[in-house]
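Hi all, posting the design record for the shared folder.

TITLE: backbone redesign
STEP: 1 of 1
STRUCTURE INPUT:
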């Protein structure tokens, strides 16, 4: 295959699957292109890495291997998704989720964010970080340049090349590798006496929150050693426009003592974090679990017309759904069905719009919609089946008794 940088437009199909487009970014060891999946028309980002350069840098090669291993084990709405890894004789290619919004860093270059917008992004950042930690992954290089935005303005964590993995028998072990970006690195990393990866990530999250709200770094100096001294001593000053709750919260995030620094469990209960009409934080152990997602978003054939067996199974007193349960993972407290003359897309749109008013988090796959509460609890699952050319059957499974009337009101 010709080098993709120089290939003419007609020869830019990678492995006969991806139509390569414009160059999005270029680093010392990798280039990132926009591409289109020729089979699905889906936009993707292709990260191209030279094997020749990898052979000259054993450390880089180990980082790439670790990044692949980590990204394959992570599935979360606020983490960039790795679709697949491909290789030619000279290059390794990552096919990843393409995010139109670019880097959070670029948005910050235009000016600081309001506390409300910063809170939204911080919720999503903490949701992703908590998920990583629950799976033994510590990012170790969290910064605005590694936080991307999709077309909806939602945040996604990327670049796991410097991440560490805690193995099953690694509980309580400290990390010793000095890594990360200077302005975002935790003071205990500078001490070179071993550090807790989770605590170090929380510190970096604190620096990111400060930058979003202030528009500048809490610890900064042209002289790197002077900046490190400020970080080690925790010397920073909050701008006058910070709210009292935010100042208090940051003092706990940027606590130089990792033993007393705020934990993620404490972060999600902090007054500043909890403030606001809508939460963008979703607990890792609930809807963000990929296995849970697969079950909840599994369709019974919603996109197809109902057959005779389906109609019989829907009949009163003849509910066969129990025969096809998935190990009892999710038990509905009630199930309701009704016929509607709206289109499938219209019904799904009504559910999604109504869920926003109820401050519920939404996951959708085709004509299946799952509604999730602020604490990560599954509230309801809505499936739409085509009955005839002009009619659909809507099935709603309720998993929380307290939400039945509210969810029912979305589609009445």
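Okay, here is what came back for every position:
SEQUENCE:
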């Amino acid at each position: 295959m010709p080098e993709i940088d120089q290939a003419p437009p007609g020869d830019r199909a990678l492995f006969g699957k991806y139509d390569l487009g414009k160059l999005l970014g270029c680093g010392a060891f990798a280039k990132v292109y926009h591409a289109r999946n020729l089979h699905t028309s889906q936009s993707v980002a292709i990260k191209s890495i030279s094997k020749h350069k990898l052979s000259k840098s054993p450390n880089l090669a180990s980082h790439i291997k670790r990044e692949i291993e980590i990204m394959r084990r992570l599935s979360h709405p606020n983490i960039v998704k790795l679709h697949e890894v491909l290789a030619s004789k000279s290059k390794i290619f990552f096919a990843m989720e393409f995010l139109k919004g670019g880097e959070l860093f670029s948005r910050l270059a235009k000016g600081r964010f309001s506390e409300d917008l910063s809170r939204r992004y911080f919720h999503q950042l903490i949701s992703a970080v908590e998920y990583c930690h629950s799976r033994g992954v510590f990012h170790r290089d969290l910064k605005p340049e590694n936080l991307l935005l999709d077309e909806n303005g939602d945040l996604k964590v990327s670049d796991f090349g410097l991440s560490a993995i805690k193995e099953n028998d690694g509980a309580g072990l400290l990390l010793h590798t000095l890594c990360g970006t200077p302005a975002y690195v935790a003071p205990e990393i500078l001490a070179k006496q071993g550090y807790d990866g989770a605590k170090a990530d929380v510190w970096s999250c604190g620096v990111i929150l400060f930058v979003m709200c202030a528009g500048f770094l809490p610890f900064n100096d042209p002289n790197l050693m002077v900046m490190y001294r400020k970080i080690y001593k925790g010397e920073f000053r909050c701008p006058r426009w910070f709210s009292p709750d935010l100042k208090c919260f940051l003092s706990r995030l940027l606590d130089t003592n990792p033993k007393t620094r705020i934990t993620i469990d404490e972060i999600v209960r902090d007054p500043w974090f909890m403030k606001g009409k809508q939460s963008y934080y979703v607990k890792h152990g609930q809807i963000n679990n990929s296995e849970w997602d697969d079950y909840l978003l599994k369709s019974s054939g919603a996109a197809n017309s109902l057959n005779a067996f389906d109609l019989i199974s829907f009949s009163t007193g003849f509910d066969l759904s129990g025969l096809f349960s998935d190990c009892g993972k999710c038990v509905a407290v009630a199930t309701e069905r009704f016929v509607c003359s709206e289109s499938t897309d219209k019904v799904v749109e009504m559910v999604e719009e109504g869920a926003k008013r109820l401050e519920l988090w939404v996951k959708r796959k085709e004509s299946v919609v799952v509604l999730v509460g602020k604490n990560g609890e599954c509230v309801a699952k809505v499936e739409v089946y085509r009955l005839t050319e002009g009619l659909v059957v809507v099935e709603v499974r309720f998993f929380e008794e307290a939400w039945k009337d509210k969810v029912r009101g979305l589609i009445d």
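COMMENT: The radius of gyration is 24 Å.
Let me know if anyone wants the other runs.
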